[in-house]
Amino acid sequence: MIIRIDQTSPDPVYQQIRDQIVASIAHGELLPADRLPSVRALASDLGVNLHTVNKAYAVLRDEGYLVMRGRSGAVIADFQHAATPERIAANAAKLEEALRQLALEHRAQGGTEQTFINAAKTQAERIFAEQSTSETRGA
């Protein structure tokens, strides 16, 4: 797993770390029970404050992507088996709100319902096709 920080991005560094770890999980590069580097090691590798990495790991833990195991560090959670009904519902609500916000922005910029649906469908197909390709390579 390679994480790259874009200092010119408007996104906070902890969010960039979080997003790239989620993408690595989605692409099958990180699997349940895989260990992540320690907070100190990743902070050193990226040249960022350890509190920044700690915040990214804490967000990932709170979202159910990581399990923190004391001295063993951060481990990728088996979301499909470990997620509680409350976590699943919270994530569904978060997804719906993010989609709602994107739809509002799209509409405010003159977009139509159909162009929004087409764009969402295209991106979903792209992501799930990438996953199928990576699963085929791993088999």
Distance between the termini: 19 Å
Which structural category fits the helices and strands?
Answer: mainly alpha
Which residues sit in consecutive blocks of at least 5 with pLDDT less than 50?
A: none
Annotated CATH architecture of the largest domain: Orthogonal Bundle
Largest sheet properties: 2 strands, antiparallel
CATH superfamily of the largest domain, please? Answer: Winged helix-like DNA-binding domain superfamily/Winged helix DNA-binding domain
- CATH class descriptor of the largest domain: Mainly Alpha
Brief sketch in words of this structure:
The chain is mostly helical and 139 residues long. The protein contains 6 helices and 2 strands. Strand 1 and strand 2 (74-76) form a beta hairpin.
Description:
- This protein is mainly α and 139 residues long.
- The protein has two domains: 1-81, Winged helix-like DNA-binding domain superfamily/Winged helix DNA-binding domain (Arc Repressor Mutant, subunit A, Orthogonal Bundle); 84-139.
- It has six helices and two strands; from the N terminus they run αααββααα.
- It has helices at residues 13-26, 39-46, 50-62, 79-82, 85-108, 113-138, and strands at 66-68, 74-76.
- A two-stranded antiparallel ribbon has the order 1-2.
- The protein is globular and about 50 Å long.
